[in-house]
Structures are given as C-alpha cells and as structure tokens.
Design brief:
With about 250 residues, this protein is α+β, with helices and mostly antiparallel strands. It has a single domain, classed as Phosphatase 2c, domain 1, CATH 3.60.40.10. About 40% of the residues lie in helices and about 25% in strands. Strands 2, 3, 4, 5, 6 and 9 form a six-stranded antiparallel sheet that branches. Strand 7 and strand 8 form a beta hairpin. Helix 1 packs antiparallel against helix 3. The chain is globular and about 50 Å long.
Length: about 250
Amino acid sequence: MDVISYGATDVGKRRKSNEDSYFLDDRLGLYVVADGMGGHAAGEVASSEAIDAITSLIYNERKLIEDFNQGEVDVDEGLRKMSRCIESSIQSAAYLVHGMAQIDEKKSGMGTTISALLIAGSYGLTGQVGDSRVYYTRSNQTVQLTEDHTLINWQLKEGLITPEQAAVAKHRNVVTRAVGSRDYVQVDVQSFPVHSGDQFMLCSDGLHEYVKPNEIAAILKHDPERAARHLVELAVNRGGKDNATAIVVSIL
C-alpha cells in the first residue's frame, strides 16, 4: 500500500522549550511520537534519544518488513517477529534513557512517552508506553487504538472514579509508565488489518487534550500536511499549555 504522512509540532503558549519529538518514514512505514519529561531540558533529550534508539533498531530489521510487504513471509510469523521488533526497540530506548539519567545528575528522573505505528503490507502495528496516542479513522469513524498509561485511566478502569470526576481531576496527567523511568518498561503491542482509505493520527497529550475524537475524522479528510498543521493550531489556540505534536498518516 502507498502511504503518505506529515508531522507538525509547536512549543505551545506556556512552555519555554519543546520536549516533544517525532519521526516519520513513509518508505519504511514507521511513525513515532515521543513526549519527554524531566527538568533542565532532559525531556527533550529523552524523547529524541528514545526515537533514535527505536528507529535505529527497526531500521536494522527492514529486510523483514520488506519481505513481509512482498508477501514472502508467513503473515502470522511476520506479525509476531515485527511485534517483537517493536517491543525490543522500545525496551532498548528505555535502557538507554535510564542509563543516561544514571550518569548525569541533571537528567535524573527523565523519561518519555512513546506511541509508535508501523504499516507493513496490509497490517498495522502499534507500540505504546505512556499517554501519547494513536487514533485511526475509517468511514468517518474515529477510534483510539492505544490505551493511556495514566493514574486517572487506571482509576476509571477500576471504577474508583467517574468520567465526570476524571475530567476535572488535578492528577489526570500523571503517567504510570514511561520510557526511561526504569531500565525496563512494559510495552503494549498490537496488530490489526489496514485498508485503503484508512487514516491515522499520532499525537502527544498536549494535542489530544484540546481536540475531541469526534472532530478528528473531518480534519483528516484534508491532505496530511494541512491536517497535521490544523490539529496543532487548534491545540495551541485552545489553550496551548503544553507542547503539541501530530503526525497524520494516510493509506492510499
């Protein structure tokens, strides 16, 4: 399948630096958004280093992806191997970022979220840690593919609070998983069929906090560049209290 994409980011109205990072490669079919955290610009280091580690490892496995695209690999076996590749790449990023924080006191406690999407053949795979998100739109319906690893989401799942309470909770941005907080992190990986006409949006929480899911499908009808820029502009204009990043991916 042919795929086109575009990424956009903005520092927002309140932050002094942009700690979000993103990566896109239509030929490889790989897309990643990372939202860094930590003082002394450590969040920026964490997000960029994590993306470098992830993309490097997956790029080394490009032969597997190319063979899968050509139908030269059994589907189930190929999906298992690519799922392990995504998980391993995010684990390697966790090990790297954690190690850097141990060496440099100024970077102590730094970490990053990761939302990754790989399009291979007629399948998509996601790797998720933290509260950045991947959405997909099909037939004007938008679905959140990834699960937020946040305290508020855990409380909702356990029935400890109501959605109304969650909407106004002061701790709703506290993440329960991050790449780099330890040398190991649990990674959510999933695979699913994709079709011509499907569209995806990867974004940091500084964007999805301001853009409602029922708005996404109409925005993604535009070309990826226009859609990504518009999504980021909406987040900034509606408050912009955090960095805002979006990648829009369209399958032709």
